[in-house]
Amino acid sequence: MGRIPxxxxxxxxxxxxxxxxxxxFIGYFMPGFGDTSFYVSILGVINFCLGGFIGYWYLSKxxxxxxxxxxx
Length: 72
Known about the structure:
The protein has helices at 6-29, 36-60, 68-71. 74% of the residues lie in helices and 0% in strands.
């Protein structure tokens, strides 16, 4: 996998965490979906885990060092 800029990683983490939380909420607390509520909640958990992984990846990376040429 290529290098993903830090801003895109932050946005991806928030998107996955938000859709995961939304999917778990819809799957667990909103009746009326019938059999599909289980699948919606499972996909919400998967999205939430992906958001946590990308967030961990974002937080564990070293900040990019500025080059000396740009400081002058």
